[in-house]
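For reproducibility, we list the full input for the S-adenosyl-L-homocysteine complex.
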Amino acid sequence: MTRTNLLGFTLPELTDWFGGIGQKPFRARQVFRWIHQRGAADFDAMTDLAKALREQLRELAEVRAPAILSEHRSADGTVKWLFDVGVGNGIEAVYIPEDDRGTLCVSSQVGCALDCDFCSTGKQGFNRDLSVAEILGQLFVANRRLEELAREGLAFRLEGAGEVSSPRPVSNVVMMGMGEPLNNFENVVNAMSVMLDDHAYGLSRRRVTLSTSGVVHQIRRLKERLPVALAVSLHAPDDELRSRIMPVNRSYPIRDLLAACNEYLEVAPRDFITFEYVLLAGVNDSPGHARALAALLRAVPSKVNLIPFNPFPGSAYRRSSPEVVTRFRNILVEAGYVATVRKTRGDDIDAACGQLAGQVVDRRKRKVIPIHQEAA
Ligand code: SAH
Ligand code: SF4
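The corresponding predicted structure, in tokenized form, follows.
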């Protein structure tokens, strides 16, 4: 008999499952807290449960997160894990410590089918959606592992520590790892609802950000179901260029995307949308592009996050020079925008934006693309 993996359940689902084995809802809550707040995977550790219930759970259920295949720690404190998700597939998650927060960048799919030209994950192809247990498992394992490392005096030392209000190392989640989260809608929404649940991680909607390449009808669904903070990967100020580097734009042009963003703001936890813009030398980084972007975004309350391109093996693009990045940013700032340049973190371990490659058995091309050479 296969055991039921309790890591994949929201609290209402767990409560139902407990009902099915003749147990009261408050028992489900207790177990839910043990798993997500205390990081317990072993029912015997759940000492306030009756022995008979623990035995019943041991027989019927398990708490199974994906196993860590490798762990890399960057000089800047960033930690990257490669997780085993079966039959040759691996996915990555990245922890980024900052002064006042610890952010975990979480993957939603094995690869990505949207094939943006500048993205390492996109170039890997696509295998499958991640399950709720695999998405939450990244958070579950990261918290446990970071606590372990902290006890050993390694990694995740937050400068200015003490200001982080979170009881666990991960205080913020960004759905910005491998995959297009809105193309794995149900699983991503269920996983995020556990992140927000006060009986689990208790993160506020402001502390969970979903980044999308702009799957417009799914942005509308997210608005109805679970409107967390939204980041949109724009990367070009006009449809012609955007369609060239992001094929998804052919289905969802910029005008429709911005309209969906405005609707989303009616319920969003913040009063702006973050637009991400990766700067590709000679492609989308001229003063003309910056001015066109400034004009375009008049339509939506926005902040702009400029991302210097992070190269990966075989990539055709180059990073814009610091002068070009500054010039681009200044044009936006002079036009009245809050525009920041994303700090490149963990690039010594290939953990920066767009560098997550994991290990994807591409179902379309039927080949295994290995992870990068192991870093030291
Ligand atoms: N699929 C989602 C979320 C994952 S990608 C999305 O596209 O938004 C997270 C961010 O990294 C996106 O803004 C993406 O465009 C950006 N990105 C992808 N490849 C990159 C690269 N090589 N260098 C810098 N940023 C990159
Ligand atoms: Fe997929 Fe996002 Fe990469 Fe595009 S940038 S290929 S949507 S992961």
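Residues 112, 114-116, 119, 121-122, 179-180, 213, 233 surround iron/sulfur cluster (ligand 2) (CB under 6 Å). The radius of gyration is 21 Å. Both points were considered when choosing residues for closer inspection.
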